[in-house]
Amino acid sequence: MSEKKLTSSRRHHLKSLILQIAATWLEQEKKDLVVAKDAYMAEKCPPPDLSGDLMETCKKLNALIEKIDEERYDLEAKVGKADKEIEDLKIKVVDLAGVKKPALKKVRMSADAMLKALLGSKHTVNMDLRANLKQVKKEVKEEPAEAVGDWRKNIEDKADRKKMFESA
Asked: In whole angstroms, how far apart are CA 123 and each of 62, 113, 116, 128, 160?
C-alpha cells in the first residue's frame, strides 16, 4: 500500500477540521456541565422552607451546612488518595516501559567542538599542537666539494671541451 505525503493545503484543511470538531465538543461539554450543576443543585439544595419558627430554620440550615462540610472533607480525602495512586501508577508505568532513548544521528565532530559540547562554551580547551613543537634546524653535511662536484661546474667543463674539439 503506497502512502501519500500530505500536502500543506490538505494538512491545513485537516487541522482546521479537527479544531472545529474540538470546539463543538468543548461547547457541548460546557452545556452538559451547566445542566449537571443545575440538576445537582436541585437535588442537594432544595429551596428553603421558611414556614415556621426562625430558630428552627437556622437549625435546619446549620445541619445542612455540617452535612455538606462532612461530604466535602470526605471527597477531598478520596481525591487526595486517588491522586497519590495515580502518581504511583505513573511511576510504575515509567519503570515498566523504560526510558526510550532517541535515535542519535552520526555527527562528525572535531575534538574542540566535542569538548565545547560536553563542558560548555566557558571551558574551552584549544589544543594547538603545532605551538608546542620545537623548530629543528636541518643539519647540513659538509662533504668535500670536489668529490660530489657542482653540476654547473661540470657543464662549464664540458663546454670548454667542446670548444677544444672545435678549434682543433
From this structure: 69, 11, 7, 16, 72
